[in-house]
């Protein structure tokens, strides 16, 4: 949905058993600190009770301050743009575009906006812990547990057993998987109540591409209907 530490932190050898959480956070932040723009390929999966309901892939772009562009290529073309003030979700096949003020968006991609901002995990995480019980998608990666700010976070499950979806627990549990050798963000996992899981896998990060501001603006094509409110990406199954 800024880093003050140099990339020299990447020289540290880190492992889930010995890694210092603070060092990992600073490593992740430092990796993206100097980038004005970012590009990455992504795979997005939406699951319910362990069953994948939807899988999509494409390319995402980020630009400071606060701009994102997600180009969905498979299984169909869609476009999600945050221009800094407004979030737009465009479905060419439906000839509709949904817009919502960016600050009001509850879209699952919104936490990734930190890549287009100051990139301080403390901006979105109430705390950060190593999720020792959360298996990484790629062997050797490390998973961090990030209960979102503003959410009730009674369970401290990130350091031990996987969190239980209790009624008085957090609405969302967010996990960040990173490559300890480079600090690259490899995956974001969002677990919601009711057995809903949203996963983003990232690869092929590229830094400081020449991407104009206009690339992160959305011009409504002629004949396309504008709908105000929650985007389909936030509500669709």
What do you see in this structure?
The chain is mainly beta and 237 residues long. The chain has one domain: Clam (outer membrane lipoprotein receptor (LolB), chain A). It is 7% helix and 38% strand. It is built from two helices and twelve strands. A twelve-stranded mixed sheet has the order 7-8-9-10-11-1-2-3-4-5-6-12, covered by helices on one side. It is globular. It starts with 20 loop residues before the first helix and ends with a helix.
**Can you give the helix content as a percent range?**
under 10%
CATH architecture identity: Clam
Tally of contiguous helical segments: 2
Strand order of the largest sheet: 7-8-9-10-11-1-2-3-4-5-6-12
**Rg estimate, integer Å:** 18 Å
| CATH homologous superfamily descriptor | Lipoprotein localisation LolA/LolB/LppX
The rough form would be described as globular
Indicate the proportion of strand residues: 35-45%
* CATH fold descriptor: outer membrane lipoprotein receptor (LolB), chain A
Which CATH first-tier class would you pick?
Answer: Mainly Beta
CA-CA gap between termini: 18 Å
Summary of the model, kept short:
This protein has helices at residues 21-33, 232-235, and strands spanning 37-48, 51-63, 67-74, 78-82, 86-91, 96-101, 129-130, 142-147, 172-178, 185-192, 196-207, 225-228.
Please give a handful of descriptors for the protein shown.
237 residues, mainly beta, outer membrane lipoprotein receptor (LolB), chain A, 2 helices, disordered N terminus
Task: Give the arrangement of secondary structure elements.
Elements: H1 21-33, E1 37-48, E2 51-63, E3 67-74, E4 78-82, E5 86-91, E6 96-101, E7 129-130, E8 142-147, E9 172-178, E10 185-192, E11 196-207, E12 225-228, H2 232-235
Parallel strand pairs: 6-12
Antiparallel strand pairs: 1-2, 1-11, 2-3, 3-4, 4-5, 5-6, 7-8, 8-9, 9-10, 10-11
